[in-house]
Write a structure and sequence with these properties.
Chain lengths: 406, 665
């Protein structure tokens, strides 16, 4: 592998890639339970995150914990929460996506193949750039895992979740427990959670206007944001391609300069230098766009899916309630098991009402959270775009001056 | 420097500037002291007739170990290998060119005779002298010829002149120094207006017998008169260019036999290298501005063709008026190239090649599809034709060609006939074939001239690197177009997202973002056009031009081959004579002696021709290198300015968006 196992300290990562938090989720700053991932160990596809917890909550045995968790542990935690019926009325923080280093890895492979057609400098630059890209992906991965835990910790319900606490406290490998846990909760809600837009659309007639509106909004918004994410990814990739071209052009110019010994040489070298610097700016710009824009869209694509899942669970509850009504009617007609049907109908109604109530709250706060996050990220992206453009301007102005006075 | 102090240069991260601020001419000195050495005695292969070279299969030219040839140090000097044939040739060749400039400075020079080529007595003086000394205007005008960088040139030249030379004493001096302000100026040159001709003297590095001088014609600077009356050295030095010109005029060169076994070996004044002299060559001394505009489709269907308006603005007296316009079609441009290469290629001139014919592109235009690609094609060709003409007229010798003047001035041009055969791929193939053959011959020739040895390799390498760079830049053009397209698509998608957004402020911000991205898409598109027209096309031009340079090397090779063949023939004739003597056949002896005399004359003639073409090619390549450096610098600056403009626009767009983002609540 091109990328040896490496322990990444948060500090190191930040030094290497000057990026701030990419995704803002407007978490409340409650000091009673603070979680972060200060470092992570990367071995091939496996990433071991160090989860660090500081708490004043009495439910915890100690005020501070530091445990190692893998991506699969996060997924387990997410699954158990999804499967907990109690949380059906909440927007469950989206699970962090699986660490994906395929992009930079594949590029690295291609680079290795193309090594012979490049100069040493070009190759070194490409490799360096890919390593930076790899680190950026890595950092993003760490962040998105951290954000997942922080969203849980900042939620009044989830922060009390027993499995969450186990996840934070248990100082051994979770693997064994995970299997047991899976058996225990075996697909309680799981099957339903999987994509169910049709149910939402063709389902039972909506009685609550708020949810009717939310449903329409989320369905529409979900497809739009998915599309925007894909388009933003493409745009960012194009920026990267342009940056790569700048690199190759810089190399080719240096090649011509190397064979030259006339006045031409200086121009070529200067020009190669300009392209090299432009490459850096373009690369940074692409990375920042990726983090501020694409990653924001990506995150909210998932978050909106989580909100849709909530609507889906509510729609199921509504359908259950209507079914229980029908069953009660039938029972009354037949005069059989009426009390049991009444009890069932009552429970279904309770569940539906509870879901509706918490769902309304959750969706409202979700909207506020989303607006704040968009605001923050759009401002940061714009400021970075301006910064990079200004860098380019001064770089170009300087080079033009030098060339002209030559 | 004056220019850089005007605008305070922004802080630049790297510390490499000082180095770049140095005089850019340093490199040229690498050749200082190199003198053209004699060719080695005939190589074993020389018996082969020249034609064979072209019949040879073209295989593994590139597998040949050419690269080893280049390992010699740059400064290797004076590897004079006395030629068996003529000692004086050596002397003549490495002869001080300084003499020439002295001689030229004599007053007669400034009164050239009328052109012999039915040219009315209207261009007696060089434009240099007849021009008023408004140096900056002149400079600007000539700079326009090469592109749109005149502002830059204007901006930077005048202050330099002022600082360097506060006493603009005489008009010619002013013109001269101004023009040279960024060139190392030789002390003795500085205040000497007559040195304007030093450059022209350069055209005469190879001595020629005076006998051929009668038919010479002016190139605007030279006098024909003076050499008839002045000393032998003058004749020798000035002869050659005139002779070249004569050759251009005559369909078949009728080089007169070696009349005077040239005596200029006596002139031993300190010699300057061609490079040094080239340094002194005034840049852009002519005032000629050509533009190709208004492409217009004439006719319909497959008989349709594009006609272009060719406008010339000039103060050169060789033209009938100061501004004139003609309409020319593409095949006329190709026809011009054909005529020029027919006349000048054999003399070792770099004849700028026209853009290639494109059947696909033109068919689209003919069919009349109004799609952007065909508009782009037309614009691309228009720009290429303009650059082509500008390169032709910026060549001091080609400018003098009657066909060039006819092309620019004459209302109706006889329809070019054979351009079909010459079109695009055709002549490129021809060129490549020729250049491939050169590579082969170079090895066989066992190149003894270090300068050529290195230069041929350099050109080969440069062409290859240039091709690679061209591929990269084309890739950039494509990726930028792709980026533009992807930005447009993203803008649309964000606009849709904005319309779905139920928070009013965020919805507004998103649709504003969509507008910003739309504008950025436009920027990328414009930048892609700049990537292409300013950068990619420049490289495409120079790849073609390097092909032309290789063509010149090939011509030199051919001349060498002819000389070697003559040597071999002479050898055979001598053997025949020896046999006849042995066999005691006096009746045939006289004929054999005559033949020997005939071939001796030929050998001398061909050898001189080879030397002359070597000198011409060498001068041409040096000129080409200079032009190239200037051209690239100009274009690179223009290109960087286009990038700069893009970035400045970007800042504007994003700064306008920032309050929108902050207004999200």
């Amino acid at each position: 592998s091109f990328f040896p196992p490496k322990l990444f300290k948060r500090q190191t990562l930040c030094d290497m890639i000057p990026l701030v938090h990419s995704v803002s989720v407007d978490l409340n700053n409650d000091a009673s339970l603070v979680i972060d991932i200060p470092d992570a160990l990367c071995e091939r596809d496996k990433v071991k995150f160090t989860v660090h917890t500081k708490t004043t909550l009495s439910s915890f045995q100690k005020p501070e914990y530091s445990v190692q968790r893998q991506h699969e542990d996060f997924i387990w935690l997410h699954d158990t929460i999804v499967e907990t019926e109690e949380y059906a009325g909440l927007i469950i923080p989206p699970a962090p996506p699986k660490p994906d280093f395929e992009g930079p890895r594949e590029k690295m492979h291609k680079l290795g193949e193309g090594e012979s057609s490049m100069t040493k400098e070009e190759y070194a630059k490409m490799k360096q750039e890919l390593e930076a890209e790899y680190l950026a992906v890595f950092k993003k991965t760490v962040q998105v895992h951290e954000v997942f835990l922080q969203r849980l910790s900042s939620h009044p319900m989830f922060r009390k979740d027993r499995n969450f606490q186990i996840f934070l406290e248990y100082d051994q490998d979770l693997t064994v427990r995970r299997k047991n846990a899976k058996e225990m909760f075996g697909g309680f809600f799981k099957n339903m959670v999987k994509s169910a837009d049709e149910v939402l659309i063709s389902g039972v007639k909506e009685v609550d206007e708020f949810f009717e509106q939310e449903k329409n909004f989320l369905l529409d918004y979900s497809s739009k944001i998915k599309d925007a994410t894909a388009k933003a990814e493409k745009m960012t990739r194009s920026h990267k391609n342009v940056a790569d071209d700048y690199n190759h052009i810089s190399g080719a110019l240096n090649n011509i300069a190397a064979d030259n010994n006339t006045a031409f040489k200086k121009h070529l070298e200067k020009c190669a230098e300009v392209f090299e610097k432009l490459r850096k700016v373009e690369d940074r710009m692409a990375s920042d766009q990726e983090l501020k824009l694409t990653e924001l869209l990506r995150y909210y694509t998932r978050d909106i899916q989580a909100a849709k899942d909530l609507l889906y669970r509510r729609a199921r509850a509504l359908a259950d309630y209507e079914n229980s009504n029908k069953a009660l009617d039938k029972a009354r007609l037949k005069g059989k098991d009426v009390a049991q049907a009444e009890e069932n109908q009552k429970q279904c109604l309770q569940k539906f009402d509870k879901l509706s109530e918490s769902g309304k709250k959750e969706l409202t706060s979700f909207k506020a959270r989303r607006v704040v996050a968009f605001r923050k990220n759009l401002i940061e992206m714009t400021e970075l775009e301006i910064k990079h453009a200004k860098n380019s301007v001064s770089l170009l102005q300087g080079s033009i001056e030098v060339l002209k006075s030559n | 420097m004056a220019a850089s102090s005007e605008r305070s240069p922004p802080p630049f991260p790297d510390s490499e500037e000082p180095e770049l601020l140095e005089d850019s001419d340093e490199g040229a000195d690498a050749f200082t002291g190199t003198s053209i050495s004699e060719m080695d005695s005939p190589s074993p292969d020389s018996t082969r007739p020249p034609k064979d070279i072209f019949n040879e299969p073209l295989e593994d030219i590139f597998s040949d170990p050419l690269s080893n040839v280049n390992s010699e140090p740059q400064k290797k000097v004076d590897t004079k290998i006395p030629s068996p044939s003529s000692d004086e040739a050596v002397d003549l060749f490495s002869d001080p060119l300084d003499d020439d400039s002295e001689v030229i400075s004599s007053p007669e020079v400034q009164n050239p005779m009328p052109d012999l080529l039915n040219e009315p007595v209207q261009a007696p003086k060089s434009d240099l002298l007849s021009e008023p000394p408004v140096s900056s205007v002149k400079k600007a005008a000539s700079a326009e010829l090469f592109g749109d960088e005149d502002e830059e040139d204007l901006f930077k030249e005048p202050p330099k002149v002022v600082t360097k030379k506060p006493q603009p004493s005489g008009p010619p001096v002013d013109v001269f120094t101004e023009v040279k302000s960024d060139v190392k100026v030789k002390p003795q040159v500085k205040d000497d207006p007559t040195d304007l001709f030093a450059e022209e003297a350069l055209t005469a590095p190879a001595p020629k017998p005076s006998a051929s001088s009668s038919s010479s014609r002016t190139n605007g600077v030279h006098s024909d008169e003076h050499d008839l009356f002045s000393e032998a050295t003058v004749e020798l030095s000035l002869d050659s260019p005139r002779n070249d010109r004569k050759k251009k005029d005559a369909v078949k060169p009728s080089v007169s036999a070696p009349a005077a076994p040239v005596a200029s070996s006596s002139s031993k004044a300190p010699s300057k290298t061609l490079e040094e002299l080239e340094e002194e060559e005034s840049e852009d001394t002519f005032d000629l501005n050509i533009s190709v505009t208004n492409p217009e489709k004439v006719g319909d269907g497959m008989n349709a063709y594009m006609a272009y308006k060719v406008s010339t603005q000039t103060s050169l007296t060789m033209f009938h008026s100061k501004t004139f316009t003609v309409r020319r079609r593409f095949s006329d441009f190709l026809g011009l190239y054909e005529k020029l290469s027919e006349k000048h290629l054999q003399n070792g001139y770099i004849v700028p090649p026209p853009p290639e014919k494109s059947i696909l592109g033109m068919t689209k235009v003919k069919v009349g599809k109004e799609d952007p690609s065909s508009a782009e094609f037309v614009e691309r060709r228009r720009a290429a034709l303009e650059r082509y003409l500008q390169r032709v007229v910026s060549h001091p010798s080609l400018l003098q060609d009657p066909d060039v003047r006819e092309f620019l001035e004459k209302e109706e041009l006889p329809r070019a006939v054979s351009t079909q055969a010459l079109s695009g791929a055709g002549f490129l193939k021809m060129l490549n074939k020729a250049t491939d053959a050169v590579s082969k011959m170079t090895i066989k020739m066992n190149e003894q001239d270090v300068w050529f040895d290195e230069k041929i390799q350099d050109v080969e390498n440069e062409e290859q690197h240039m091709r690679k760079l061209h591929v990269m830049v084309e890739s950039l053009v494509n990726h930028r177009k792709e980026l533009s397209g992807n930005t447009a698509v993203f803008a649309k998608s964000v606009a849709m997202l904005g319309s779905s957004e139920d928070n009013t402020a965020l919805s507004r911000a998103l649709s504003q973002l969509a507008e910003v991205e739309d504008r950025i898409e436009q920027l990328h598109q414009e930048q892609a056009a700049n990537d292409f027209f300013t950068f990619s096309e420049l490289l495409a031009d120079y790849i073609r031009l390097l092909g032309a340079v290789k063509g010149c090397f090939d011509q030199r090779m051919k001349a060498w081959q002819r000389w070697q063949d003559a040597e071999n023939m002479l050898q055979k004739k001598r053997e025949v004579e020896a046999k006849l003597l042995w066999a005691n056949k006096p009746d045939k002896l006289q004929q054999a002696k005559d033949e020997i005399a005939e071939w001796e004359a030929k050998v001398t003639q061909y050898e001189r021709e080879f030397e002359r073409i070597s000198a011409t090619v060498r001068k041409e390549v040096i000129r080409f290198d200079k032009e190239k450096a200037r051209d690239f610098k100009r274009q690179i600056i223009k290109y960087l300015e286009s990038l700069l403009n893009s970035q400045q626009q970007l800042i504007k767009y994003w700064e306008a968006f920032l309050p929108e983002a902050k207004a999200i609540a």
